[in-house]
Automatic annotation (TrEMBL):
<dbReference type="Pfam" id="PF26640">
    <property type="entry name" value="DUF8212"/>
</dbReference>
<dbReference type="Pfam" id="PF06985">
    <property type="entry name" value="HET"/>
</dbReference>
<dbReference type="InterPro" id="IPR010730">
    <property type="entry name" value="HET"/>
</dbReference>
<protein>
    <submittedName>
        <fullName>Heterokaryon incompatibility protein-domain-containing protein</fullName>
    </submittedName>
</protein>
<dbReference type="InterPro" id="IPR058525">
    <property type="entry name" value="DUF8212"/>
</dbReference>
<feature type="domain" description="Heterokaryon incompatibility">
    <location>
        <begin position="21"/>
        <end position="147"/>
    </location>
</feature>
<feature type="domain" description="DUF8212">
    <location>
        <begin position="256"/>
        <end position="280"/>
    </location>
</feature>
Length: 297
């Protein structure tokens, strides 16, 4: 695993024992910093060099504030020119998010912040925050599912890296659950907004484990429905960690990847809900198909 040292800013490789680290979840946009783009010098270039450096700097600075010596950003910590490294990374991705100390979720299309919430925050501002978060494109990504469910602690930040909320605490500034301050109430409400945006209940958001049998195959697939990935194969590859399976990556196989995913799932479970899916192309309103594999989540 390759990590960014938050003090030297250099990339370091680890095998076996991995030090505590923060991890970033974000959307790939223009001017991302790849492994080949990452500088070998100590200082990161200015934001004018490539826009992707800004979020890397945000992540590094926050990890350092949180007392962590390392952080991980997928854009520059994976050498995607190596098919072997890419395969290992995608098969390990769920575990990397799960084993992180904290996951920083960067919503680049959200501008409103909760950091200044107090008794004077009006309903209109609160409504705008809920709307912006629920409308964020981050929630539409295929890879978001494991990046949201795997980490033990998840903190959301807006476009300027102002803290929105800590999903795993009532609010970072509220020390006691019994404190019913406006900040606490709004934070709880944002958890509802995230549950609505993802289709995942608050209980699952708090307790999910890929090895648990508490949630059926069909339910997990429903969380993945209507999500988008750039590569069609990633519809399947982004779900491997959710179902606790591993399989080779074959970019170019297209929709066959999702069929392989289902075959691997059937090797590990007797859950027949994998066969319970609806065909949107059927002439009737809904036709439930039993005994065959679905073409997509």
């Amino acid at each position: 695993m390759r990590l960014i040292n938050t003090h030297t800013l250099k990339l370091e490789e680890f095998h076996g024992s991995i030090p505590p680290y923060a991890i970033l979840s974000h959307r790939w946009e223009t001017e991302e910093v790849t492994f080949d783009d990452y500088p070998t010098q100590v200082d990161l270039p200015s934001d004018d060099a490539m826009k992707g450096f800004r979020k890397i700097r945000y992540c590094v600075d926050q990890a350092k504030k949180d007392g962590l010596d390392y952080c991980w950003v997928d854009t520059c910590c994976i050498d995607k020119s190596s098919s072997a490294e890419l395969t290992e990374a995608i098969n390990s991705m769920y575990a990397w998010y799960r084993d992180s100390v904290i996951c920083y979720i960067y919503l680049s299309d959200v501008s409103t912040s909760i950091t200044a919430v107090d008794s004077r925050m009006d309903d209109e501002t609160a409504a705008l925050l809920h709307y912006e978060i629920g409308s964020s494109q981050w929630f539409r990504r295929g890879w978001t599912l494991q990046e949201l469910l795997a980490p033990r602690r998840r903190t959301f930040y807006n476009a300027s890296w102002s803290k929105i909320m800590d999903l795993d605490k009532p609010d970072g500034r509220v020390s006691r659950v019994e404190s019913r301050s406006p900040a606490y109430q709004l934070s709880v409400g944002l958890t509802d907004t995230i549950a609505i945006a993802t289709g995942i209940s608050k209980d699952v958001l708090k307790t999910f484990s890929s090895t648990s049998t508490n949630w059926s195959v069909a339910l997990k697939m429903s969380w993945a429905s209507n999500r988008q990935t750039t590569r069609i194969e990633d519809v399947a590859y982004s779900l491997m960690g959710i179902f606790d399976i591993n399989m080779p990556l074959l970019y170019g196989e297209g929709a066959k990847a999702f069929l392989r995913l289902q075959e691997e799932i059937m090797k590990t479970t007797y859950d027949h809900t994998i066969f319970c899916w609806s065909d949107p192309s059927a002439t009737c309103f809904i036709r439930f198909v039993y005994g065959d594999l679905a073409g997509s989540p």
